[in-house]
Specification:
- The chain is α+β, with helices and mostly antiparallel strands and about 600 residues long.
- It has 3 domains: about 170 residues, no CATH class; about 130 residues, no CATH class; about 210 residues, no CATH class.
- Helix content is about 50%, strand content about 10%.
- Strands 11-13-12-15-14-9-10-16 form an 8-stranded antiparallel sheet. Strands 1-2 form a two-stranded antiparallel sheet. Strands 3-4 form a two-stranded antiparallel sheet.
- Helix 6 packs across helix 10 and helix 15 crosses helix 17.
- The termini are far apart.
């Protein structure tokens, strides 16, 4: 019978529930279009690094769906009781192990009476067995080093010239076989002419392709240090290094290297190459069983939680724990942002993450000599005080605190409340900026006039005899100023008439209609911004944020308004806290209510008079 799946609705889509071992074992039959993610990175997420290393079979830094399924099948094939995969155990019980070699390794590690091998114990044993195998290998290497610590360098120089030396001595054998081959196997006239037509250097590729030395029956390779020793210039440096590191220490100083010398050198250093090849990448059978035991213990502990953060984002959407991509919490601007992910390149990440429609704050975090870059989503409050170079504190999942500094912001609506008040704040900022500009211009004008006056006074004091008399003050133009006053009066009258008409209209309404008018006016101003923000907030998507970090998110993982608000906590006083409202340094309050009442009475009188 087919497995009966259970799903839960979260993030605007159906996610599979993975509660039992049967759910895990049947994941291979679940349509992968229903998986939330199809791959995730092994770095930058909060999960056991060693477990991810074991899962990453091709060591490419990513866990893909086939690798997760293969790990589940591997564990199931070595367990007598697959139910342990759903029990959230810290290791694997002996009674649950079916594989004989793994069971024997586990019994050899456990004291009498213990029935479960923990992940920590299995990992420590694996490290110990590996170290023991490496120690045995290192001990066997003493006899494999004829030159002691210099053996490795000698082998490296030999490997650098091996192909060229083999080529030379084969050519010499052919020359001994047939005398006609001697001239044919040396550089031809045409080859030398083609080389001579271009600019030459010792490293020229065409020169390096020529024979190592003059080919002939019984030929030898010159080892002299002189420039005119007869060695191909392109290989002179490599042959010199080979001579000093291998030939002289093993065979003694000599002017040339014969083929028998060359074969003897290879034989003496072959033992070192064989020892290197025997380095325990493949461990003894006992050590392999211990490594499999560690893998099994980790899979029993970690496969179910990994599946619930891979096939489904259960921990994230149920808020019962932190998801693997949530690496900590950022405290900044009186808020704590819980959706924080690690990023390696903020610029590249922001290019895709901006499609998430979320307000993202990128921070560089420093703790001692360590550095970390994060992207934090702010989903409650407003963005008025979020700006570059502001400082906060980031707490990672281990509880360590980091100094965090904002480096970049992707600005999107955070809340409907912010969108409602945004037009008024924008107007207030615009008015404030204009007033500041006017005040600055006036101040600059006054300062300029004062400077001119001071300069003129100084000139008069310095040369009173030559100073020119100040022109007579211009006569007061009554007609001109009368026109100005008339224009001002007309403007004030027009404003008063318009204001009176507005208040006349308001006073002509019934009392219950006035709030509706004010409400309509506020909706007219704030409505478009709120509607636009509502659409953006409803379309927030977790996918681009994770995709930009190396995930392959396979669903439209939405973050609606209620859920998004829960991801950022605002500052609140503790329950039952006492609060004193009197502030000794508060600014003195002005009787705005009295002023407003007087203004309302005056406008009412004006409206009555104009009616």
């Amino acid at each position: 019978m087919s497995h009966q799946w259970k799903f839960f609705r979260a993030g605007g889509f159906d996610q599979v529930r993975i509660d039992t071992a049967a759910d895990l074992l049947n994941l291979k039959d679940l349509d992968q279009k229903l998986w939330v993610a199809l791959s995730c990175p092994t770095r930058g997420i909060e999960f056991d690094a060693r477990t991810l290393e074991l899962l990453d079979s091709d060591a490419d830094g990513r866990i893909r769906a086939p690798e997760l399924l293969a790990a589940i099948d591997w564990a199931a094939g070595r367990l007598a009781t697959v139910a342990v995969l759903e029990q959230k155990l810290p290791g694997v019980p002996l009674a649950a192990i079916k594989d004989a070699a793994i069971l024997a390794a586990a019994k050899g590690l456990l004291p009498d009476g213990d029935e479960m091998i923990s992940v920590e114990a299995a990992s420590a044993a694996e490290v110990e067995y590996t170290a023991r195998a490496l120690a045995a290998w290192e001990a066997s290497g003493v006899a494999a080093k004829p030159l002691g610590e210099g053996t490795e360098a000698a082998c490296a120089t030999l490997a650098a010239v091996k192909d060229k030396l083999d080529d030379f001595f084969v050519r010499c054998r052919l020359a001994a076989f047939d005398a006609r081959a001697g001239d044919a196997l040396n550089a031809s006239d045409d080859a030398l002419k083609s080389i001579g037509a271009s600019a030459l250097s010792a490293a020229h590729a065409d020169i390096a392709a020529l024979p190592l030395a003059r080919v002939g029956a019984g030929g030898t390779v010159p080892l002299g240090a002189a420039i005119d020793s007869g060695i191909n210039p392109a290989w002179a440096e490599s042959i010199a290094a080979f001579r000093e590191a291998a030939v002289v220490p093993l065979l003694g100083a000599r002017a040339a290297l014969t083929e028998s010398d060359w074969l003897a050198l290879q034989d003496q250093l072959a033992v070192y190459s064989a020892w290197q090849a025997a380095k325990p990448a493949g461990l003894p059978a006992e050590a392999e069983a211990v490594r499999d035991l560690e893998r099994l213990a980790r899979y029993v502990r970690d496969l179910l939680p990994l599946a619930n953060n891979f096939v489904a984002f259960r921990d994230f959407y149920t808020r019962q724990g932190k998801a693997t991509f949530q690496i900590g919490t950022l405290y900044l601007d009186g808020r704590s942002a819980e959706l924080c992910i690690s990023v390696s390149d903020a610029g590249k990440h922001a290019a895709l993450a901006s499609l998430s429609r979320m307000c993202l704050v990128y921070c560089d975090c420093v703790r001692g000599g360590e550095r970390l870059s994060i992207a934090a989503a702010f989903t409650a409050g407003d963005s008025d005080q979020l700006m570059a170079l502001r400082n906060g504190v980031f707490y990672d999942r281990q509880g360590r605190d980091w100094d965090a500094t904002i480096t970049r912001i992707i600005d999107h609506p955070i809340s409907l409340r912010q969108a409602f008040w945004a037009p008024y704040k924008k107007l207030a900022r615009m008015v404030g900026e204009q007033l500041q500009k006017i005040a600055a211009n006036k101040a600059a004008g006054v300062e300029g006039k004062l400077a001119e006056a001071a300069t003129a006074t100084a000139k008069k004091v310095d040369s009173p005899a030559t100073a020119k008399p100040t022109p007579a003050q211009q006569a007061f133009d009554v007609g001109k100023f009368a026109g100005i006053f008339a224009a001002i009066g007309l403007a004030v009258g027009a404003i008063g008439t318009a204001t009176a008409a507005m208040f006349t209209g308001l006073l002509g309404l019934k009392w219950w209609q006035m709030p509706l008018v004010f409400l309509g006016l506020m909706l007219l101003i704030s409505g478009p911004a709120v509607v636009l923000a509502w659409f953006k907030l409803r379309s927030r998507n977790l996918g681009p944020i994770l995709d930009a970090n190396g995930w392959a998110v396979n669903a439209r993982a939405r973050i609606n308004i209620p859920f998004g608000t829960s991801l950022t906590q605002l500052a609140q006083l503790p329950e039952g806290a006492q609060r004193t409202l009197s502030d000794p340094y508060a600014e003195k309050e002005r009787p705005w209510k009295t002023y407003a009442a007087i203004a309302l009475m005056l406008f009412a009188a004006l409206a009555w008079w104009t009616r």
